[in-house]
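QA checklist item 7 of 12: single-chain prediction sanity check.
[x] sequence parsed
[x] length recorded as 409
[x] structure emitted
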Amino acid sequence: MLDTKTIEIIKSTVPVLEKHGEDITKTFYKLMFTNHPELLNIFNHANQKQGRQQKALANSVYAAAKYIDNLEAILPVVTQIAHKHRSLGIKPEHYPIVGEHLILAIKEVLKEAATEEIIDAWTKAYGVIADAFIGLEKSLYEDAADKPGGWDDFRTFTVAKKVKESDVITSFYFTPDDRGNISSYLPGQYISVKLNIPGEDYTHIRQYSLSDSPEKSYYRISVKKEEGHSEKPDGKVSSYLHNDLKEGDHIEISAPAGEFVLDKMNNPVVLLSGGVGITPMHSMLRHLDATGVNHETIFVHAALNGNVHAFLGEVHEIEKRNSLVKTYFCYESPTEQDITEKTFSKEGYITSDWLNTIVPNKDSMVYMCGPVPFMQAMYETLLEAGFQKENIRYEFFGPSMQLKETQTV
């Protein structure tokens, strides 16, 4: 517990963190990786270059300061981060390194404004926050290891099968090298894959949603190949998976993790996705199909066109088997073949008017995943259509962000 004076000092820094938070976190990562380059074996290099990691950490530090006297208020965010840390292999010995460089970054950015009193307060506060993460992550490691077929760190798997799902998405099926059982998971969870890419100085770890139902003897992920452009290179890991990883190759995988999962409720369900965001939604749909759909489930997916639309056949088969499942596809720019074969329900973009026609029950639980701009647009559209904010769940690929309501909603 922190004393009253320390809490007052931390809360007084909230406006400063709102203004300088990203400068502090950029400085923090620069200092930490300079002094501890071995940590580049854990952190996502692409998120660092794009600035998403720095922004996510700045938001987390800001929230911790704002709610330092009531950290339970940000428990959902803490839990989500802890799952990611467990999946990446973050250990207690990493926290003193992070704390040291966070304090150094605060001093460097704020300069004389970083008084001894403020530095002492943040040092104490970081100790409390770090202990909370360490304790929670310890329980997550133990839970992962204690499950039937579970393990607590990374385990070696073989690429049993590689299947092209669309022009840009390929599925990878993994079975354990030790031929043992594998732990089950909740639909919507993800695994981390650790890769040693030839020519790279550090290992690369990426988290991918599991795209099949849990009732299997293998894990499946479905990965989009990230094509680059003038301002952004090709995705290093996705390119390696698509171009170089072959059936029979070996890969290290973490046990399943994540908080974005289906609730055990009787409300109707809407599974809403864009692009490769279909992967956790497809896992949820397949699980519902495997265990018996007992409430209305509406599956809505947006894609550029049928060439990049994964799992079209699988989703249609599930719909045929289950009268409670309805599927709708929205193509931004359908091909002539799409038009001829009538593989989509709507051309253009998902609108509130269209959602109102296909999802009559506004008490539905909505699960959503896709690119950030898609999810921001859909969040506003869902609210405009009359869905309840508390019934909208979403997952980001990469560092967490916050979807915002516009003033017009």
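[x] summary fact logged: The CA atoms of residues 362 and 386 lie 6 Å apart.
[ ] second reviewer sign-off
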